[in-house]
Amino acid sequence: MTDYKRKRVVVTGVGAITPIGNTPAEYWEGLLSGCNGIDYITFFDASSHDCRIAGEVKNFDPHQYMDRKEAKRMDRFAQFGVAGAKQALQDAKLVINELNAEQIGVMIGSGVGGIKVLEDQQTIYLNRGPDRCSPFMIPMMIANMAAGLTAIHTGAKGPNSCAVTACAAGSNAIGDAFRLIQGGYAQAMICGGCEAAITPLSVAGFAAARALSTRNDDPAHACRPFDRDRDGFVMGEGAGILILEELQHAISRGARIYAEMVGYGMTCDAHHITSPVPGGEGAARAIRLALKDAELTPEQVSYINAHGTSTPANDSTETAAMKKALGDHAYKIAVSSTKSMTGHLLGGSGGIEAVATVLAIANDRIPPTINLENPDPECDLDYVANSSRAQKIEVALSNSFGFGGHNVTLAFKKYP
C-alpha cells in the first residue's frame, strides 16, 4: 500500500487473437462452447519431433491491420500484438490524438519474442553467409517490438515497455500498466501479451525439457489440466490485449466498462529455473498480495482463471497454492483453465486469460476446463469440468506463473 490516493482503474476494451477465434467475440464464444484449438502442427514438418501438436492461430490475415510492407517487416508475434491492440482500441472506442497521445501508453509482454525470425536468419547465415542476413532481423526479433510497433501504429506516446518474465509476461505487463495508471503516470494503457513460438527449435527445446505433451495420437484431448492423465502442456500462440483506463477518464468519455482492476500480486519462488516450489508457497503469496492490494478477503472471490498448464508439477502445485492462500473458501470458488482449449501461449497466456476473466465478470459466465475426465486426487477443487456455467461473479483472479519462479495474480471485480 502507498501513502498517496491511488486512482481507480477500469477495463474498457479487449482484443484477442487465439487458436479458437481471431476476435474477442469469437474467442468468448469458443470458450463458452468448450472449443478445442489443438491440432497437428502445420507450420513445419514436425514428423521427427517428440511433440507434433500445438494450438495454431488459424486464418489470421495481418493485412486487416497493417499494409503488406509493414507486415513483412514484423515477426508473427508482433503482428498479433498490433492486431490485438487495434481490436482493443476499437472495442473501447478510444481515439488517440495529439491531445491525449502522451497520456496513453503501451505495455505488452512476450516470453520469447521473434524466435521464428531468429531461426530463419540463422539458416540464411549458415547457408549463404553473414552478408545475406536481413537488416530487419534485430528489430523483428527483439521482444519489446510488439510494444514499440503498437505505439508506432496507434500513436500512443506515453509509458512504453515490455515484460519478459516467461509465461508470466502478459500478466506482469497488465499489472505494471495498472500501477502506472494508479500512480497518475498515464490516463490509459494498451496492455497484455503476445507470442508466436510454434517453431522447430522452440518445440524441440520445450520437448527436450520434458514439458510438452506427447499425446500425438489424440490432439483434441492432449491438453487436460488437473486430470490425472495429463502429460505436459501444449504450445499455443496469439495475443490478448486490454485497454485499462483511469476511472474518471473512462466516465468522462462515456466508455463501456467491463470490470474494475483492483489488485496485482507479484512474487518469486527463488527455487528452481523451471519447477515451482513444492506446496506452491510463492504462488500463494502472489494471490495473497493481490487480495491485500485490492483490499479484498478470500470469501469475496467468485472465480479464478488458473494458470492450469496441464503439466504434472503445475496443476497440483497451483491447487495447493490456492488452498494455502484462500483457506477453506478455495473449495467454494469456481476455477477453470482456459489453456485446455487454447494451449499455452507462453508470454501471451496472461493476456488472453485476463480477457477471459473480465468477460466472465461482465457476462456472469464461467468458461470450462475441458478434457477433465479423471481428476487428479491432489487436484480437488471445483474446476468447472467440461461445460461452462452461468454464475454471478463479483471478484475474479487470474494466475500466471513462469520459468524462473515468476508468480503473478491479477484481481478484477464487477463495476460498479
UniProtKB/TrEMBL annotation:
This protein's GO CC annotations: cytosol
Q: In what pathway does it function?
A: Lipid metabolism; fatty acid biosynthesis
User: Which InterPro entries does this UniProt record tie to the protein?
Assistant: 3-oxoacyl-ACP_synth-2, Beta-ketoacyl_synthase, Ketoacyl_synth_AS, Ketoacyl_synth_C, Ketoacyl_synth_N, PKS_Beta-ketoAc_synthase_dom, Thiolase-like
Q: Which SUPFAM superfamilies match?
A: Thiolase-like
Q: Name a Pfam family for this protein.
A: Ketoacyl-synt_C
Q: Name any Gene Ontology BP term.
A: fatty acid biosynthetic process
> Which residue intervals define the domain Ketosynthase family 3 (KS3) in the entry?
6-414
Lineage: superkingdom: Bacteria
Keyword terms, alphabetized: Acyltransferase, Fatty acid biosynthesis, Fatty acid metabolism, Lipid biosynthesis, Lipid metabolism, Transferase
Q: Name one GO molecular function term.
A: 3-oxoacyl-[acyl-carrier-protein] synthase activity
EC no. given is 2.3.1.179
Q: Which residues form the active site?
A: 167
Q: What is this enzyme's catalytic activity, as reactions?
A: a fatty acyl-[ACP] + malonyl-[ACP] + H(+) = a 3-oxoacyl-[ACP] + holo-[ACP] + CO2; (9Z)-hexadecenoyl-[ACP] + malonyl-[ACP] + H(+) = 3-oxo-(11Z)-octadecenoyl-[ACP] + holo-[ACP] + CO2
The top EC class is transferase
Its function?
Involved in the type II fatty acid elongation cycle. Catalyzes the elongation of a wide range of acyl-ACP by the addition of two carbons from malonyl-ACP to an acyl acceptor. Can efficiently catalyze the conversion of palmitoleoyl-ACP (cis-hexadec-9-enoyl-ACP) to cis-vaccenoyl-ACP (cis-octadec-11-enoyl-ACP), an essential step in the thermal regulation of fatty acid composition.
Q: Which NCBIfam families match?
A: fabF, PRK06333.1, PRK07314.1
Q: Which PANTHER family match?
A: 3-OXOACYL-[ACYL-CARRIER-PROTEIN] SYNTHASE, MITOCHONDRIAL (PTHR11712:SF336), POLYKETIDE SYNTHASE-RELATED (PTHR11712)
Family label: Belongs to the thiolase-like superfamily. Beta-ketoacyl-ACP synthases family.
Q: What is this protein called?
A: 3-oxoacyl-[acyl-carrier-protein] synthase 2
The major lineage groups are: Bacteria, Bacillati, Cyanobacteriota, Cyanophyceae, Nostocales
